[in-house]
Design the sequence.
């Protein structure tokens, strides 16, 4: 597995940093971020958000918080992922 680094939260401290990568083979987006606190996790897991999906957060998943100022980095990751999935070249 190879990852292409896209960006890191420029306001973060050195002991933890929301970060975004694109997995090179699958073009999946990979996120590192702050794990949601109990209140946010309860809000997300407390109801069904999509038809035919039960409420709750499956044991193999979790909710994370990504700062809004990382939107441009995430947008760049989406562009890279779309090009990679389409077999296009990187910029």
Sequence:
């Amino acid at each position: 597995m190879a990852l292409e680094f896209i960006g890191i939260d420029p306001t973060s401290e050195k002991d933890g940093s929301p970060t975004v990568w694109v997995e090179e083979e699958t073009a999946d987006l990979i996120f590192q971020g702050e794990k949601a606190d109990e209140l946010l996790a309860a809000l997300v897991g407390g109801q069904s958000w999509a038809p035919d999906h039960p409420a709750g957060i499956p044991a193999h998943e979790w909710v994370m918080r990504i700062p809004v100022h990382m939107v441009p980095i995430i947008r760049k990751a989406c562009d890279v992922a779309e090009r990679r999935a389409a077999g296009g070249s990187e910029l």
User: Anything to note?
Assistant: Strands lie at 3-8, 19-23, 29-32, 34-35, 64-65. The chain has a mean pLDDT of 91. The first helix runs from residue 38 to 45.
